Amino acid sequence: MTGIGRRGVLGAALALPALRARAQGAGVKIGLVAVQTGPQAALGTQLRDGFLQGLKHLDGKLGGLPAEVLVIDDELRPEVAVTKVRAAIERDKVDFVVGVVFSNILAAIVRPVTESGTFLISTNAGPSTLAGRGCNANFFTTSYNNDQVHSVMGQAAQDTGYKRVFVMTPNYQAGRDAAAGFKSRFKGEVVDEVYVPLTQLDFSAELAKIAAAKPDAVFTFMPGGLGVNLVRQYRQAGLANIPFLSTFTVDEATLPAQGEAALGFYSAASWAPNMDNPANTKFVKDFEASYGYVPATYAAQAYDGAMLLDSAVRKVGGRLGDKDALRAAIRAAQFTSVRGPFEFGTNHYPVQDFWLCQVAKRADGKFQTETVRKVLSHDTDPYAAECRMR
Amino acid sequence: MSLGLLLVQGLNGLQFGVLLFLVAAGLTLVFGVMDFINLAHGVQYMLGAYLGASLAAWTGSFWLGLVLALPAALVCGLVLEWLVFRHLYERDHLSQVLATFGVILFLNQAVRAIWGSAPLQMPVPALLEGGVMLMPGLQYPVYRIAILVAGLAVAGLLWVLVERTRIGALVRAGATHAPMVAALGVDIRGLFMLVFGFGAMLAGFAGVMAAPVLSVDPGMGDTVLILAFVVITIGGIGSVRGAFIAALLVGVIETLGRSLLPDLLRLVMAASPARQAGAALGSMLVYIAMALILAVRPRGLFPVRG
């Protein structure tokens, strides 16, 4: 892993001037919002590199127009994100705002962006607030609604026939949503629900509880460093014979640090690097060649974001001023997703398949999640019905 | 909750406490002896973890990584002392807090620039792999027992150093009457540098020991730092003995509170609110304990200055 961040930064630094040089005259400008500082910067780097890889495959053009990318570091601070995004819209006149890893950043910028008539394409954050009654004509997401992913794990646990599941999540809104999402489809007994502080370092107390409860499986949502700690300690405590069902806990961004400890652990996603379709094979192979690490969903969804914009700009023949035509073109989503089938629902959230994935070791010694089986087909998020857009 | 589980949780608490002690010992020495608030102690712990993890990966051995990381952490500490901290000793606490906070920001970003922002992994050494079966289904990792032993050994070593050696006597004297010690012809600058270097090395040692259990990422020092400050405040600033007792206390209160409170609250209220309230109260418990102890003993359990 050593040095990857540096190489990523270098890659972007090399790519950007080249793209910028081509942007003379009529072009398309993208404000790419990706956190580059703070403990979660690895996710923002994944997102940025995924989008840039998409542009590379498109020869630096979107729908035939030369593309210019401004990378905006939101610093994971909503007020910073708003200031920088406003500047990108008013001063730099970006045509699209793309990216955003975290929901709280998205919540802060969604009004400033969409009210200025600019399209906002989230490639990761998919909060419920924008999926239901708060759905927005100028907002699209290429990821999912967060609740869907948790409920996929609930369905998978139900399908496998687990009777007793131990639930453990961090004690904040997203953690409680995760537990609720899991329980929405899991009908067995929840033996215990444990909420841990977001700053938790040592899980030994919770692990002892799990051992005492002897559940059929454990469900957890521990993003970032929390998940690294938990997965390693779970393995060290000899609990790995209890199936580890998780969301956003074992993915390609944390696997380099979790390594062998995460082997065989489960996650839920709409995409995994091993998905066997030509678009995905090309994406994963070239991404790894460019950036030297295995892409996670953050990168794949951003890559899809680039392809989506390419298809939309092409469909309107480069006339970015015709907002209604452009909106219809994005809504049509006529591109080949790395996930296979892809379409937007009425609320501009994807209607897609969800998979149960498992951590595996590849022949080259790197770790990745791999699809086990399809859990939900053509799934619409639970809030879409409340959206009044048609 | 069975007695077996309770004992295991107690052991977990002690082990977490010992890890906290490793971080807090250096902090209390520097704060107590030099009257210098070093917020950057947490990033020194982080540096230790990073150095240990990369040196272990480079040499292919945990032990070589550990042995090499200690002098490396010492050098980093001394360089920081020479570049930044030395100019702050005469200044007030606010300047020290501001400057060392700046060091935190700088080093967190520097670590990210050098190692990248994804967490690193450091494998458990083969000698300490595996676990002891303490209760059915739960292994107690041998490595955690090693942390416990290492922490106790450091505590013993520090006790001998501070209570039984000439340098220790100077350190104790410096903690109570620094100007007097200087007037007696002791090179207080040199003494400070020694203490500071030792503190940096202790922080680095704690970082390396924690690396195989905890995630090595930028910012890992920040969470530990807060608890370390709680520990040295409860223990009495400058007192190694106080830091030891307080660290164990904080570790046990934290662990038992987190694991028992939700179950205890369930006896008096419904399951769902009991879980949430228990979790919230569990994470507050350490601070409530600190407030109570300070109410009774405002200078901590073992105050150094009279």
UniProtKB/TrEMBL annotation, chain A:
This is ABC transporter substrate-binding protein. Keywords: Amino-acid transport, Signal, Transport. The keyword tRNA processing does not apply. Belongs to the leucine-binding protein family. Residues 28-361 form the Leucine-binding protein domain. The keyword Transport applies. It comes from Belnapia arida. InterPro entries: BCAA_transport, Leu-bd, Leu_Ile_Val-bd, Peripla_BP_I. Pfam families: Peripla_BP_6.
Automatic annotation (TrEMBL), chain B:
InterPro entries: ABC_transp_permease, BCAA_transport_permease. Pfam families: BPD_transp_2. It is found in: Cell membrane. Keywords: Amino-acid transport, Cell membrane, Membrane, Transmembrane, Transmembrane helix, Transport. It is a multi-pass membrane protein. The chain crosses the membrane at residues 12-32, 39-58, 64-85, 97-115, 142-162, 192-214, 226-253, 273-296. PANTHER family: ABC TRANSPORTER ATP-BINDING PROTEIN, BRANCHED-CHAIN AMINO ACID TRANSPORT SYSTEM PERMEASE PROTEIN LIVH. Belongs to the binding-protein-dependent transport system permease family. LivHM subfamily. This is Branched-chain amino acid ABC transporter permease. It comes from Belnapia arida.
